[in-house]
Amino acid sequence: MILSKSLAEYAVEVKYEDLPKEVVEFTKLCILDWYGSALAGKDEKPIQTILELVQEWGGNEQATLITGGKSSVGNACLVNAAASHIVELDDIHKSSIIHAGTVVIPAAAAVAEAYNLNGKELITAVAVGYEICYRIGEAISPSHYYYWHNTATCGTFGSAAAAAKLLNLTVEQTMYALGNAGSQAAGLWEFIEDGANTKQLHTAKAAYNGVLAALLAKKDFTSASRILEGRRGFFNAMSEKYDTEKITKNLGKEYKIIENSFKIHASCRHTHPAMDCVQAIMKENCLSYEHIQNISILTYQTVLNITDNPNPETVYASKFSSQFCSALIALKGSASIIDYNEEILQSPEVRELMKKVTVAADPYYENAYPEKWGAKVVITLNDGSIFCEATDHPKGDPEKPASREELIKKFKTMTLGKIWNTDEHIQAVLRLEEIDTAEWMSLALGEEQCKQTQ
Predict the structure, then answer these.
(1) Which of 279, 342, 355, 402 is deepest in the core (most CB within 10 A)?
(2) C-alpha 135: how far from chain center
(3) 63 phi and psi angles, rounded to 5 deg
(4) SS3 314
């Protein structure tokens, strides 16, 4: 069995009519969540830097930039994918450890708009892209994740698959797309040591590279046929341990997109289990942060690898600090996009509370990861009182799902001050199967034009 052939056959065969209603509705919520994240992040400095560069490059006006205006498909991938990743509110899949929305959806949207495709085709392509990158991520996690950012690496396959589906590629051409996507897959975690802008480049290039691979495949540009399992392929080169059975198990019989998780807090997902516990303890017991002596967090090792940062120096770095995130939610009771700012980062209250947070790995949570992302929190007060809370699943996981209403509310919070007619944007996505992709994306373009005339 050639794994990329199995995935290619799946991508070619699946049709919109095959998708259960539950999958269609859930996929639209994934698209809405991505759209809100992209609108929320479009004005951030790193995104404006990428925008400045693509404007210098120029490009045919094929697809809408979330920042306003139009450019080439490739440039739209770069800007829109980067914008949707920067505020740390993009979706996540536990066992593959991938933020699929931030790479698959901008790639699919750009291609669908450029080629005048409708919402049904877009929905199908997004579901396909999620399916393929999640399966690849599951096969190589968690060993791959120590050095490699799965969203950047495995996400490249997802964007390629989505684009290939929209371009109506043959099985052989789709294999070419996956093969050349794999040769471009990259994204090292070292950026986190500096809190650098590189994380946005990861999603930008994953979307761009996947689409590039698919567009070249449409022109019969060939690739390795065994890019995943080959002797010098993706699995052997980039993981210590992998499971090829996860690529094809129940392929075509289930839809992994519905395993997707949504973020409630505006920070790295690995900080969320502990944050949920802190929030619950503080709220249920009517505690005040001034009385806290210690916050002890027991969790899985990856939390320490990615978010053990007792002294974040920037707002962005604070989103990758378990100490800061736990202190923030103990202090404010929430950790939404508006709660992360320079003032709170430098506040004496948060800085003092951060010193009281300890984070350690625990065998129970380590053994359950990545199928479960859990934590136990013990808060000790100055008078000796002790409060405990534990979870195997943060809010937004399928086991503790965010409702449609909660995701709509999240969209409104993310886009506050970014768009005018919020309900129009929401309804466009929720009825996406009835309209063309260009009609939906024109709303973002129209917002920027309205803004410029104010």
Answers:
(1) 279
(2) 15
(3) -145, 150
(4) coil
CA distance 219 to 115: 15
* CA gap 24, 261 in Å, rounded: 16
C-alpha dihedral sign at 112, 113, 116, 120: positive
For residues 308 and 359, give the distance between their C-alpha atoms in angstroms, rounded to a whole number: 7
* 3-state DSSP percent of the chain in helix, strand and coil, to 5: 60, 10, 30
Query: CB pairs under 8 A, 24+ apart, for 331-334?
Result: 331/289, 333/279, 333/282, 333/283, 334/279
**Is residue 450 pLDDT above 80, yes or no?**
no
Mean pLDDT over 117-128 rounds to 98
Q: Is the link from the previous residue into 142 a cis peptide, with omega within 30 of 0?
A: yes
Helix (H) or strand (E) holding 414: helix 404-414
CA-CA distance, 376 to 454, in Å (whole number)? 50
- The four Cα atoms 342, 346, 351, 352 give a dihedral, to 10 degrees, of -130
Tokens of 237: 């080169």
- CA distance linking residue 146 with residue 192, whole number of Å: 12
Tokens of 243: 């499971």
Both tokens assigned to 206:
């994953």
- Side chain identity at 3, as an amino acid letter? L
Output the CA–CA distances (angstroms, integers) from residue 200 to 38, 70, 108, 177, 337, in the order listed.
12, 20, 18, 23, 17
Q: Is omega for the bond preceding 106 within 30 degrees of 0, making it cis? A: no
Contacts of 158 (CB under 8 A, 6+ apart): 98, 100, 103, 104, 129, 130, 132, 133, 134, 206, 210
User: How far is the C-alpha of 141 from the C-alpha of 111, rounded, in Å?
Assistant: 29
Tens digits of residue pLDDT in 260-289? 999 999 999 999 999 999 999 999 999 999
Structure tokens at 76: 């739209």
**DSSP three-state, residue 388:** strand
Q: What percent of the chain has pLDDT over 90?
A: 95
Q: How confident is the model at residue 451 (pLDDT cuts 50, 70, 90)?
A: low
Which DSSP category does 142 fall into?
T
Query: What's 397's DSSP letter?
Result: S
DSSP 3-state of 14: coil
Contact (Cβ atoms closer than 8 angstroms) between residue 169 and residue 113: no
In angstroms, how far is CA 309 from the centroid of its own chain? 21
Which H or E element spans position 363? helix 363-368
Q: Which of 268, 5, 246 shows the shortest CA–CA distance to 131?
A: 246
∠69-72-76 over CA atoms, to 5°?
65
